[in-house]
Amino acid sequence: MFEGLPVRGMLVRLTDAWQDVLRRREQTGGYPVAVQELLGEMTAAATLMQANIKFNGALVLQIMGDGPVKLAVAEVQPDLSLRATATVKGEVAADAPLSHMVNVNNQGRCAITLDPKDRLPGQQPYQGVVPLFGDRHEKLEKLSEVIEHYMLQSEQLDTRLVLAANDKVAAGLLIQRLPLQGETNLAGAGAVARDEDQIGLNEDYNRIAILAASLKREELLELDAETILRRLFWEEDVRRFEPLAGVQGPRFACTCSRERVGNMLRSLGREEIESIIAEQGQVEVGCDFCGAQYRFDPVDAAQVFLQPAIQPPGSPGVH
Predict the structure, then answer these.
(1) What order of strands is seen across the sheet that includes strand 170-177?
(2) Is 280 helix (H, G, I), strand (E, B) or coil?
(3) What is the reported pLDDT for 26?
């Protein structure tokens, strides 16, 4: 927190958790360098957003489009356990920008989904979707620009985001202007309108956002949090909170299970599953996130259609 100012910040540095994500992909050849960096930035960004809003459910960040990267997904649970995956069809240059990977014809989209942990009957996840271009239909070449645009449209709050990733670290710095004091459900639309009037006008936020934007990729990847904050904000009165690390911090975990796969098979229908078994002798499903393999022989598959559906909360993890 910046003492006395309507500005807050958050810094994430993923090491073991991010390397776990990449290790799961090694058996299929890994990701191209540019895709690896994009997915790492997405994982860092999703972690920042989940920790920022403290949502009791999964936060899922998705990028989809018409380039060789058909889909990239990063999912973070309330306890900051995370997983990520990308589907790549075709060649991706090592220095490919976002538009070349997913937004060739300006058809790419970014979606942020909030999936409640304990859904009420009939309750659906909340999802916001924005294009991968700006207000003048110009292609956005950085994930950070896409999310800043999303936050401005959905939350009416100024946000500055700096992201970086390589094969060892995925990191991010989030700076956000706080909403006006007293903006609650009792304040109503008037408070929201007043907050919109402040977009881009707060001098304290603008100053700190400019300082944050000066952070270089190499610094974000290589320096510890204390050094980064001291270099950037040495003239500001910054109150630091204890970092979330270890069992309380970000870590890789997958929510796939045999029950989830069974639900997915059931949704395909008995006829479809029986045709697969007739052709292959069994049904084999792999998890894109963790690489786990689930096999169903004819007896297992028949049992699936005798059991009631069990739908754990959260987004599906098996494809």
Answers:
(1) 7-14, 170-177, 159-165
(2) helix
(3) 81
Q: Is the pLDDT of residue 116 over 90?
A: no
How is residue 141 written in tokens?
Answer: 């070449």
Q: b vs e for 28-67, b when ≥16 Cβ sit within 10 Å of the residue's Cβ?
A: eeebbebbbbbbbbbbbbbbbbbbbeebebbbbbbbbbeb
Domains of the chain, start order: 7-252 (3.55.30.10), 258-304 (3.90.1280.10)
Strands 251-252 and 81-88 come out as parallel
Measured CA distances, 133 to 70, 103, 137, 209 (Å): 17, 9, 5, 22
Backbone angles phi, psi at 214, to 5 degrees: -80, -10
Q: How far is CA 251 from CA 16, 58, 315, in A?
A: 7, 14, 18
Beta bridge partners of 189: none
DSSP string, 21-33: HHHHHGGGT---H
pLDDT at 185: 37
pLDDT digits over 241-271, tens only? 888 888 888 999 888 888 888 888 888 888 8
Task: Please tell me the predicted confidence (pLDDT) of residue 33.
Answer: 95
Does 126 have pLDDT greater than 70?
yes
Residue 145: count other Cβ atoms within 10 Å of its Cβ: 17
DSSP 313: S
Cα–Cα distance measured from residue 96 to residue 105, given in angstroms and rounded to the nearest whole number: 15
CA distance 182 to 73: 35
The pLDDT of residue 180: 63
pTM: 0.83
